[in-house]
Amino acid sequence: MAKIEKHFQTLFECMADSVKRPNLFEKDENLFWDDPYISKSLLDAHLNPEFDGASRKLATIEKTVNYLTKNSFLKQGDTVLDLGCGPGLYSSRFCQFGINMIGIDLSKRSIEYAQRKAEEQGLKIEYIQGSFFDINYDGMFNRVLQVYGEICTFPNEDRDRLLRIIHKALKKDGLFIFDVSTRELRKREGLKNRWRFFDGGFWHSGKHIVLEQGFDYPEYDTWVDQYTIIRENGEWKRYHMWFHDYSLQTISEVLTNNGFKIAHIWNSLTGEEYKVGGDWIAVIAQKV
Ligand SMILES: C[S@@+](CC[C@H](N)C(=O)[O-])C[C@H]1O[C@@H](n2cnc3c(N)ncnc32)[C@H](O)[C@@H]1O
C-alpha cells in the first residue's frame, strides 16, 4: 500500500512539475544521444528508410547527396567534415563519390555502426566519437557539413562558438553546408501536451509512461519538446529537445556576425527552390 502511495505521489509530482515552463535552453543531466539504451532506439530511427526521425528518409538522403554532388557543391577530391554524422548515412555516400570524409558524432553506437559499415563497404572514412565542440582543425576542409538542423538545438553562445570552430576548420573560401528549421514547421507541428503508456519502447525497455509537454518562447523563436519518462518503479527522468528556429534574415545576421556570407539558399538540401513560408531553410555559407 505504501509503495502504491509513493508511486501515486511521484506520478502526481511529475505531472504537476511537467507543466512548469523550463528556463530557456535549460540543460539536462541525462544523456540522450549517447545513452546506452536510447542510442539503440536512435540508431533504429536513423536506419529506418521510411522515417523522418533521427535522420531524414532514405529517399531524401539520396536526393540530397545527388543534388550536392551533381551541382559540384561537394566535389571529388574535396576533404569534408561531417558534424553530427550519426551512422554515416551521408558520409558513406559522399565517400563512394570520391570525397575524403571525416565524420564526428557523440553517439558511440552510431560511430561503431558507421565504422563497421565503412569496413564492410571498403570505404576509407575517419569516424570519430566525440563532441564537435571539442575539435580544433585549422584550415583543413573544403566543406563542413551539418545536416538536419543540429545548429538549431543550441543556445546563441554555443551556436556562435560552433560557427567559430567551423570557420577555423575551413580552408579559405570554404563552404559550410547546413539547414535550419523555421517557425512555419513549429506552427504546423503545434505544441505537444499528452501522455502515453508503453510496454517497452523508444525510451525504456520496460513499462513506462511518457509525459510530453511543449513550450514556446516566441520572443526567442525557440521551442522545447519536454519528455518526462516515468518507470514502473517510480523513477523518472526528464529530457528537453530545444529548437531555435530561423528566418532568412536571422540566419543571415548570425552568419555575417561569425565570418560567413550566404552563397546559396533553398528550402531543402535536395535543391528545392527557396520560398518564404517553407519548413526549412537550407544554406551554403562561404567563409569570408
Ligand atoms: C538529428 S541527428 C542528424 C544525424 C545526421 N546528420 C543525419 O542527418 O543523418 C543529430 C546528430 O548529431 C549528434 N550530435 C549532437 N550533439 C553533438 C555534439 N555536440 N557533437 C557531436 N555530435 C553531436 C547526435 O548524436 C546525432 O547523431
Give a verbal description of the structure.
The chain has eight helices and eleven strands. By secondary structure, it is α/β, with parallel strands linked by helices. The longest helix is centred in the N-terminal third of the chain and has 17 residues, at 2-18. The protein has helices at residues 2-18, 38-47, 58-70, 89-96, 108-121, 156-169, 183-189, 248-257, and strands at 79-83, 100-105, 126-129, 141-146, 170-181, 193-199, 207-217, 222-231, 236-244, 260-266, 280-287. It folds into two domains: 2-30 and 185-243, no CATH class; 38-182 and 246-287, Rossmann fold. It starts with a helix and ends with a strand. Strands 3-2-1-4-5-11-10 form a seven-stranded mixed β-sheet, with helices on both faces. Strands 6-7-8-9 form a four-stranded antiparallel β-sheet, covered by helices on one side. Helix 3 (58-70) packs parallel to helix 4. Helices cover 32% and strands 30% of the residues. Bound molecules: S-adenosylmethionine. S-adenosylmethionine (SAM) is lined by residues 33, 46, 54-55, 84-86, 89, 104-107, 110, 131-133, 147-148, 150.
Q: How far is it from the N-terminal to the C-terminal residue, by CA? A: 68 Å
Please tell me how large the radius of gyration is. Answer: 20 Å
Q: Which architecture of the largest domain does the CATH hierarchy give at level 2? A: 3-Layer(aba) Sandwich
CATH homologous superfamily designation of the largest domain? Vaccinia Virus protein VP39
CATH class of the largest domain: Alpha Beta
* Structural domains: how many: 2
DSSP summary: helix tally: 8
Number of strands: 11
Q: Which strands sit side by side, in order, in the main sheet? A: 3-2-1-4-5-11-10
Tell me, briefly, the overall form: globular
Can you give the helix content as a percent range?
25-40%
